[in-house]
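dumping these here so i dont lose them again. two proteins, back to back, each one seq then structure tokens. dont judge the mess
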Amino acid sequence: MTQLELVDGVLRGEAFLASLKDARATVIGLARQTAAAARFLDRAGARVRVEPVGTTAKLAGEQLIVVTAPAAVASPAVAAARAAGVPVLGDLDLGWCATEADTLAVVGARDVRAAVRFTSTVLGRQGRPVLAAGGADPDLLTVAPGFGGDGLVLLEPAAAQLATVQLFRPRVLAILGGATSDLVALPRPDGTGAMTPELVTRVLAHQTSRDCVVLDADDLSARELARHTRARALWLRTSGALDHGVYVARGRIAARLNGRVEEVCPAAELPRGVLRATLVAVACALWVGMSPERIADVLAPDTVTRTVTRRTVTTAEGAGEAREPASSMTPASSIV
């Protein structure tokens, strides 16, 4: 298992898990951070040892190193092992490699949890299994093994996880205001800290032209951030039309893609405080191929009320049903 193989996506899902059997693997970080990664590797059959952040152990003979603390990424021991050709992963990479499912990630400093709830509710009606992880949901390392490649992973990564990523490539990355301009402090070694432009840029660099980045058009720093990715940008705005994106205008949520405008649903009955989160859900739903009509059905006022007041389920309703036909103007056909 080489770093190049992992980058090329050769080893994900069952193939990746099989490669871990009897592999010598070292997990580096603080005790509470390393526990989940160590358990994951142990269940996969790896021979696991755990080292502290400042380890001076010789790691060149290992077959995999997993770093769970930002300070460990550039440590001399990890740098020497990387130079010797040992693959180095963050714990988010480890979970991402455990399933071949497409991943949609939401990051930012505000509205993130609401966006994940709304997106989970909407995607739960499109026929593919949906696995929500991170944030208030279970950690990806816990739930990813065994989740099928035909499903969708909806992820809320932590700042410390982004600080250690080496490979993680979400098919859709939604960046809400605050991730690009409001916060400046890097995560501390204990895993706490802010979601910063530097951390988001690490993930953007892994995306390709087949991927999508969803950006807040009202965040002045977002256009600068868009320069760091090869992914297609899809813009959001809660008030006023856009040349390309999902927005609210004349009291309705609409999408303009490839010059074509299609209205999705009225916005007047949506609480003002959840508009941005709703637009993220609409953008993600269009990307996976849901029609505007089906999205509008899910965003009916009674559904929105339930979503605002309670935590949604993380597995799609009706998994195994026929997948919703893609609209002719969805990002699934025009961006990817």
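---- next one ----
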Amino acid sequence: MLGLEYTAEELTSGLRTGMATGAVDLVVNFAPGLALGLALGWEPVTALLLGGVTYISSSGVIAKVLADLDRLGNRETPAVLSILVMEDLVMAVYLPLVAVLLVGGGVASGLLSLAIAVAAVVAVLVLALRFGEPVSRAVLSHSNEALLLTVFGAVLLVAGTAQRLQVSSAIGAFLVGIALSGEVADRARGLLGPLRDLFAAVFFVFFGLQVDPATIPSVAVLALALGAASAATKIATGWWAAARIGVRLRGRVRAGATLVARGEFSIVIAGLGVAAGLEPQLGPLAATYVLLLAIVGPLLMRAADPIGGYLAARSAAAAGVVPGAAPGAAPGATPPSRPAADPEAPLRRR
């Protein structure tokens, strides 16, 4: 669904300008989990898994709440999208390497897995960018049922192939959305919306079945500390990313709050360690951590506007600027009778 909101040109532009942001996001948000794992005396590979858990935001949760709050067209959303795409691309490299480390493979095995993953990502990306219009024409149908089944089948095929090649299935599904444009994208958004809501609910039901309430008290303090630290680093990352593209204070607050939620990928990463029989605390800690931020993240997204408005008013008052005054006006100037367009107003996509 997130891919349907953006064109291939917007994706490539976002990736070109988002490399620095993606690098900062990786370093700043991988560090809390890695540091905690090492501080607890875990093996390095287990600490690497916990770093992955804290690093990646939940694109599924974020996309759902952005749509519910009607923020997909906001000025800060391209910065958020760029970070989410970069995170999924990092996962295409991270997961194969971690899988090799877990089975005790050598350098050659790791490099081979990495090469396959990178080649698969590049191939799918090139197909989405160069052949998006022919794909859209081939998919277009006057029947809603035929269009729904065709798009849904394409998503399953590409995402499944990507997963088989040890690449993020989310990347495959996202690129299918990017490849579709025009009337197909407009109609697919409406048709796939109910399925998105259904699968989001099913995921959290499944996640709840994996959490044993009896294990939560033993890791609650660690999960709270890790959640607070990584929420702060995500907020800082989103704030900085939005500031780089000229978004004002309220939009920066929204961007930071948007990235806090964790979900599906964090559970997958922790599950690798649990399946390999690593540190027994990893599973309960990751589950409690994800549960906490899956609840707190959407709440922060909803509270971001009033918080941003309060901070913007405080900042304006400290600078002696009357709210609504034209940019560059003298301190204390009265607002114009016909103010300029709101710089935080949404930009509609497509």
